[in-house]
Amino acid sequence: MKKLARQIIFYTALLSIWAILAKLRVWPPYLFPPPWGVGHALWDGFADHSFWIGIAVTMKRMLIGYTLSIVLGMILGLAVSSNKFLEETLGGLLVSLQSLPSICWIPLAVLWFGLTEKAILFVVLMGSLLSVTIAMEDGRKQMPKIYGMAGRNLGASGFRLFWYVLLPASLPFIVNGMKQGWAFAWRSLIQAEMIFLSLGLGQLLMMGRDLSDMSQVMAVMILIIILGFMVDGLIFRTMERRLQEKYGLTPA
Amino acid sequence: MSTSPQNAYQPAVPAVPHTGVRPNVLNGRPASSVTIFPNRPVTEIAIPKVALDGISLSYKTTSGERLLALDNISLEVRAGEFLCIVGPSGCGKSTLLHLIAGLNPQTSGRVLVDGKPVSGPGTDRILIFQELGLFPWLTVGGNVEFGMKMKNVSKAEREEKVQYYLRLVHLSKFRDSYIHQLSGGMRQRVALARALATEPDVLLMDEPFAALDAQTRDLLHDELERLWAETGRTIIFVTHNVREAVRLGDRVALLTFRPGRVKQEFSVNLARPRHMEHTEVARSARDILDCLREEINKSLEAEYADEKIS
């Protein structure tokens, strides 16, 4: 409760300073809108449905791209972690590729797929695929070996051993990488949307700039922060905590 | 190369002057245990349930030299027998169980179950690991069900057997609990139920009670003895605790320290149910312990020698 009180005080203070600076007109309002201006923009955006549509389009792309990267990342990670040759060759390449910001894939994506949905999904996929792959690989290595042995001992083998034992056993070690993968995918998607004109939150942001509407720009920024925080902070962190508790990794 | 069943029980060993425990020169089951558990059929089958035929295992250490862990081990276990294997830490007794379970291959020799060589894991031999290896992502019921699911047992039958085996280990109430919610002794019992539910002929147990407090361990000894009597399984039980071995076993095999060899076998001719605190158990254990002490000293020497080098 004390923590909540402090947070309320902090955000109230922040808003007050913002409001005072805007009221004093230190900078002109078209560059530095007051909080209520941004509030208006948020309200208008939801009222004329443009924000709803933007959120829906962006989240749909996220879900498709992220699901793809989870599936492909798991297959790749599994291949790399179970084959010494692949680990030494492909594994190294994947780590070095991770230093490439995913926005760098945009020129390639546009040339390959044109200004289409596919190009955006490709960028999202490249953004998160590598962290999911590496997380999967690490998870397989960190997972206690006893589970694999116990599974084989109880008659599991092949795909069923993977699906019913190895995958769930490595889950707490993978979830962190999945979280990171989501964060990368989220960044890549917004970046890609800002360059392509194709609905979505990124485009709304650019539209605000083109119209010199600072209030809309800030409103969309707030929206992006809130959405990102909700998924990352609420969904993933809860999942992580629950898993660790269940697997006995933290004193429950 | 293979030992015939007749002379397998007659190793050339010096007689230990004691009544309770003696080197195994008899082929028969002690009469005392028959009177306690009259329901258990005392059958002598020509083919042993499990036979280890000249098992050796060596592996390369990180420094590149070959280390012989198990050296020409031959042992036979009758159907329904409770065999305990004792030895100092590092004698390869856990490794031996892993070989019987088919989780690792031996370098030479054969593991035979019902006369047929073992070539991999099989649900006729279930190992209860020292660390248990219960699956934390499944409930207690899910864990017990797991082996049957892998054997494609029908849903209805699984349901029924989960109930049956959980009742057998007194955990019916905890069917929907997760492993982290259970105490150490309860986890042991889940592991036991999980192993029994696949209905193996042979139960392999790797120091399952080592990490438990004395009271819990005593209770589980009683339960294990009861379950063994009720289900008629063959049990191979590995421990470093000689008294525990005498408490539970029909027979105790003593392994030497590195490389592991069968040093001597003892029949335990004490009436059941036994108890860890019984004086006969303590006295019998002392006889085996005398024999074991030499090996423990060797293992300690090796440990200290390692220290000097590093």
Protein described:
The complex is a heterodimer of chains A (252) and B (310). With 252 residues, chain A is mainly α. Chain B is 37% helix and 21% strand. In chain B, the strands form 2 sheets. In chain B, strands 1-11-10-4-9-8-7 form a 7-stranded mixed beta sheet, sandwiched between helices. A 4-stranded antiparallel beta sheet of chain B has the order 3-2-5-6, covered by helices on one side. In chain B, strand 10 and strand 11 form a beta hairpin. In chain B, helix 4 crosses helix 5, helix 5 packs across helix 6 and helix 8 runs antiparallel to helix 9. The longest helix of chain B is centred in the C-terminal third of the chain and has 31 residues. The chains are: A mainly alpha (252), B alpha/beta (310).
Specify the number of helices of chain A.
10
Which strand-content bin applies to the residues of chain B? 15-25%
Structural class of chain A: mainly alpha
Identify the biggest protein-protein contact and residues per side: A-B, 21 and 25 residues
Number of helices of chain B: 9
Report on the biggest sheet of chain A. Answer: none
| Uncertain residue ranges of chain A | none
Oligomeric form:
heterodimer
Number of DSSP-assigned strands of chain B: 11
Strand order of the largest sheet of chain B: 1-11-10-4-9-8-7
Poorly predicted sequence stretches spanning 5 or more consecutive residues of chain B: 1-19, 25-42
Order of helices and strands of chain B: HEHEEEHEEEHHHEHEHEEH
- State the order of secondary-structure elements of chain A, H for helix, E for strand: HHHHHHHHHH
Q: What number is the mean pLDDT of chain B?
A: 77
Intertermini distance of chain A: 22 Å
Percent helix range of chain B: 25-40%
